[in-house]
Amino acid sequence: MTTVFTHAVVPLMLGAAMGRRRISSRLRVAGAVAAMLPDADVLAFHLHIPYADAFGHRGATHSLAFAAMLGLLAAWAYRWLDSTPRRAGWFVGLATLSHPLLDACTDGGLGVALWWPFSDARWFAPFHPIAVSPIGARFFSERGAQVIASELCWVWLPVGVLAVCILLARRASKRA
Ligand SMILES: [Zn+2]
Predict the structure, then answer these.
(1) How far is the CA of 173 from the centre of ligand 1 (A)?
(2) 25 CA distance to ligand 1 centroid (A)?
(3) Residues with a beta carbon under 5 angstroms from ion ligand 1
(4) Distant-in-sequence contacts of 153-159, Cβ < 8 A, 24+ apart
(5) pTM for this model (two decimals)
(6) From the CA of 155, how far away is ligand 1's center (Å)?
(7) What would the pLDDT profile of 64-87 be if each residue is shown by its tens digit?
């Protein structure tokens, strides 16, 4: 996994850059929760479900189908999220999908079951520069520092740059 707060930062930063009129505070928080939710599957270890099982860690909750399901749920709850069905669905669906895509870019563990339930095969991105965060990592250890440095470089920095680009594009379109 990538550390849980790094997953949350993707929808939080991008949602903030898009502005409160487009992405309400509630929708942004829902996106952050959705981006962290797939790792609730670490419970599988306590239930003695093997890592490689479809319901093991990085299994079903790390699939496109799971992201689509949360997106549909958000579209249904659009009023509560102060949004429109389409916007709530896309934002929460993509926030959820960012989780397995980031995990697939880590350098350890098993890949993600992106195509579940059609295939249980675990998938890794062709490029995986992010240092994997060990489950139950101690962030104040040397390994914890390596993981955080790697996530700052490969996740926070590019997402931050993207957020600034969105902000600049918004300013430019306001002026036009
Ligand atoms: Zn994960």
Answers:
(1) 36
(2) 24
(3) 1, 38-39, 103
(4) 154/105, 154/129, 154/130, 155/2, 155/6, 155/9, 155/10, 155/102, 155/130, 156/6, 156/9, 159/9, 159/10, 159/13, 159/14
(5) 0.91
(6) 14
(7) 999 999 999 999 999 999 999 999
